[in-house]
DNA sequence: CCGCTGGCGTACCGTACGGTACGGTTCGAC
DNA sequence: GTCGAACCGTACCGTACGGTACGCCAGCGG
């Protein structure tokens, strides 16, 4: 009988978190080599316990992704005094956070897992990743963008479009290439350029949406 | 004994193509439900023939992806008289092609399959998809961009960066959301907006890289 | 000390699926 | 007509893995 995993606010005991950590490690190491037996062995627990706690394999997977994805936390941006410089720094910070997360090995693994999962009419993992990745950034960025518009620092019709353009400028083809296993993109290779790319993306964003731009 | 699949120029007999079509259909329908038995039944052939022709399951998968991916053909762009209007139309056309391909059900399936594959230290499918998707566009677009620069219609340092920005402006978060199974993005929903998005992306690209832009 | 509960380890079961073997059929060559 | 090649259909094997059952131990309340 599968145990229903609460979608949010789920509190795991330390022991359970250790199990989830083991599961995540296996996921990162072996790709999809996440077998119940392997998790049990890695976590030094019995399969029966796994089933008791997480219901079935999908439950364990969901719990792992959910738990890990929720760990991604964005730094709070000071929104009180919104001059041009502060706005730019905020947006730059978002770009940096977004890129850093996306490039990380854990993120790649989680996204791959979720994509694989979505290829089987099971979209729950996809939603979780989506919710805690792009959408989380969006929720935090949109108010900033709108505040920027209200302060006449930015110009755009739809904050949704502005956000999505921002996403595109920052992420470009990096994520899909990582997911597809492009060897030309090594971790170090990206991380070395991350600051340059972040600056460039921010510049471009302001070129498109800055108050003085002939907005498209 | 696995048969080596030639990476290019592979010519399949009509019968083999029918098998590959069946495999692709199954892939699109059932996600990863691509079992050898299912393909054999769907294509009305014997499993033994499948193994004879494609070596093993991976060979069949590779042949399917390879064969289908190679079908994506970009229209040739007239590069002879390169005035501003022609350049814009070319780039707009690239944007339209890129977006149309990426949004298609087949592309989503192929990308998902390749990502799943890449999650198992097997990156061959990823490379094929990469090669026939983004990189194919890049190969065709770069000369246009450089011609545009030579004609003083565009300004950029690196055509590579220009291409990647173009990719980001066009694709934005559409592809990853589709791969993750975001229900909010229905096929019709996207296709209805495709022209608007293409225009917007092209405008933005010219804002960033047009000759008159204060290039970032 | 007794018994109960929670959890470990392991053996076990059922099934799905990759891969193989083999008999039967069609078809072209001679 | 005979032979052989190609191929279909299906039965079969081995294995990996999800899921279950059970024996055992530790801790703890009484």
- Tell me which oligomeric state these chains represent: homodimer
Would you count the extended β strands of chain A for me? 0
- Architecture per CATH nomenclature, i.e. the level-2 architecture of the largest domain in chain A: Orthogonal Bundle
Helix content of chain A: 55-70%
The arrangement of helices and strands of chain A along the chain is HHHHHHHHHHH
Number of helices of chain A: 11
**Percent of residues in β-strands of chain A:** under 5%
- CATH topology group of the largest domain in chain A: Tetracycline Repressor, domain 2
What would you call the shape of chain A?
Answer: elongated
The CATH class of the largest domain in chain A: Mainly Alpha
For the largest beta-sheet of chain A, the strand count, sense and barrel status come to: none
Could you list the spans of chain A in which at least 5 consecutive residues all have pLDDT below 50?
1-9
Number of domains of chain A: 2
Classification by helices and strands of chain A: mainly alpha
CATH superfamily of the largest domain in chain A: Tetracycline Repressor, domain 2
Q: What Rg of chain A is obtained from the alpha carbons, in whole angstroms?
A: 20 Å
């Amino acid at each position: 009988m599968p145990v229903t995993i609460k979608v949010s606010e789920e509190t795991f005991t330390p022991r359970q978190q250790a199990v989830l950590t083991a599961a995540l490690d296996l996921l990162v190491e072996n790709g999809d080599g996440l077998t119940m037996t392997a998790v049990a062995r890695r976590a030094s627990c019995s399969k029966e316990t796994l089933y008791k706690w997480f219901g079935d394999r999908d439950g364990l997977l969901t719990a792992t992704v959910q738990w890990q994805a929720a760990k991604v936390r964005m730094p709070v941006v000071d929104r009180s005094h919104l001059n041009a410089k502060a706005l730019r720094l905020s947006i730059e910070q978002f770009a940096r956070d977004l890129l850093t997360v996306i490039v990380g090995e854990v993120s790649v693994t989680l996204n791959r897992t979720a994509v694989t999962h979505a290829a089987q009419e099971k979209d729950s993992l996809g939603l979780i990743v989506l919710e805690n990745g792009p959408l989380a950034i969006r929720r935090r960025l949109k108010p900033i963008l709108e505040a920027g518009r209200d302060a006449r620092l930015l110009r755009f019709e739809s904050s949704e479009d502005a956000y999505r353009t921002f996403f595109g400028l920052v992420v470009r083809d990096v994520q899909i290439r990582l997911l597809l296993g492009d060897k030309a993109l090594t971790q170090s290779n990206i991380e070395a350029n991350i600051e340059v790319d972040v600056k460039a993306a921010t510049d471009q964003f302001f070129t498109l949406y800055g108050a003085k731009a002939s907005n498209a």
